[in-house]
Amino acid sequence: MRILLINNFYYNRGGDCTYMFALKRLLEQKGHEVIVFSMHHPKNFASEYSRYFVSYIDYEEEMRNISLVSGLKVLSRTVYSREAERKIRDLIRDVRPDIAHINNIHHHITPSIFYPLKKCKIPIVWTLHDYTLICPNTSFLANGRICERCKKRKYFWPPLVRCKKNSFLASLMAGVETTIHRLTRVNELVDVFIAPSRFLKEKLIEYGFEEKRIVCLYHFIDAPSLVNGFQSDNYFLYIGRISQEKGVRTLIDTVMSLNTEIKLKIIGEGPMREEMIERVRSRKIDRIEFLGHLSHDEVLNYIKGSRFVVVPSEWYENYPFAVIEAFACGKAVVGSNIGGLPELISDTERGLLFEMGDRDDLIATIEYLLRNPDIATEMGENARRFVYDVLNAERYYERLISLYNKLLSGQGR
Questions:
Q1: Local structure of residue 243 (DSSP, 8 states)
Q2: What distance in Å separates the CA atoms of residue 239 and residue 405, rounded to the nearest whole number?
Q3: Which of 61, 90, 98, 196 is the most buried (most CB within 10 A)?
Q4: Domain match, 243 and 383 both
């Protein structure tokens, strides 16, 4: 089978790329031919199909020197890329793929590619990695807080609350983009949406998408990551962006209140990093260590050496890879009772849940695992079995290829 994988970026940039590269390897291992369509970028990996990629655009640079011309350029590229439409038409003509598997395409490639695909009767599968189809800001966040003001298609809200990069113009464009895509009903050209969490699937249905066109399919994790951890008694771990919506401030304030010698190690960068470092320094706390950005192998080693991992998010987490990698290393996860986290953690089975933003509840939860290391170990073993039994690549492939075959036979939509 010739499978066309489409994503804005073709380098290790985030969760969507992690998934795409893992899926590409899996499909190729199974004997399929994988064709890539993406955007040129200085960090891209080499690809024999790069001549078809759309040109690179740096939105931050364009917006920094905003003018009427650059504004129109950004708006046209964000909503409907004629270049992407033209280049994917060339790719289809030359390669003739059987099926198209979309990932993140908004703002760069755009849904303009759907029209040539449908004209050539190529089924479209779209794996969703965020909430872009129902939230102009992609994350249900406005100024660091959960926001659903746009529900029932009230897309005038983004510029009013400046939810996109705290910018009126960026927020206006986000609202316009969503409005146009809704009015043109472009998403109806997609045959099947894949939601990696039940939470995302339920949100899509809540916002008007047909349930029969949505399949919930948890992402898999590569076999090399399925490694046993070793026990360390001196730290637990946070991995991710250091920002308000990730709940890092709540976590740090919690740890500063704990009566323990166990350390918190924080891996990652973000806009609040310096503020949080100063917050810890001013209180003369030496039990919190900021490790900055690390390689993937280094992150895995820290996970393996931890007691457990904490995900204190204060937004609708969809399917964080930090949780899955912790599970793969046999570690329990403490997480907020919000978004897709509860269905992954399954309270008291693979970790513990606490009420989002509730510092006292988080204190009690962490102290419980610190006092009961045997329970933390048992939860970690449950988590590792969950990865082996449910999130393995073979199971994922069987379900995905079954979906592909149904679409190709005309039965899938």
A1: S
A2: 38
A3: 196
A4: yes
Residues 233 and 200 in one domain: no
Please report whether residue 178 resides in a domain. no
Residues 18 and 36 in one domain: yes
CATH number of the domain that residue 332 is part of: 3.40.50.2000
Residue-range definition of the domain harbouring residue 279: 223-390
Calpha distance 413→203 (Å, rounded) = 20
The verdict on residue 176 lying in a domain is no
| Number of domain units in the chain | 2
Q: How confident is the model at residue 19 (pLDDT cuts 50, 70, 90)?
A: very high
In this prediction, residue 399 carries a pLDDT of 96
Least confident stretch, 96-100, 131-135, 227-231, 233-237: 227-231
pTM as predicted: 0.90
In a shared domain, residues 230 and 90: no
Buried b (16+ CB within 10 A) or exposed e, 71-101: eeebbebbbbbebbbebbbebbeeeebbbbb
Contact between 263 and 289 under an 8 Å Cβ cutoff? The reply is: yes
* Contacts with 353 (C-beta within 8 Å, 6 or more apart), sequence order: 334, 335, 336, 337, 341, 342, 345, 347, 365
Q: Is residue 241 included in any domain, yes or no?
A: yes
Query: What pLDDT does residue 296 have?
Result: 84
Does residue 173 sit within a domain?
Answer: no
Lowest-confidence pick of 73-87, 144-158, 314-328: 73-87
Name the residue among 274, 307, 267 with its Cα closest to residue 291.
267
Give the C-alpha separation, 304 to 301, whole Å. 5
Mean pLDDT of 288-303: 92
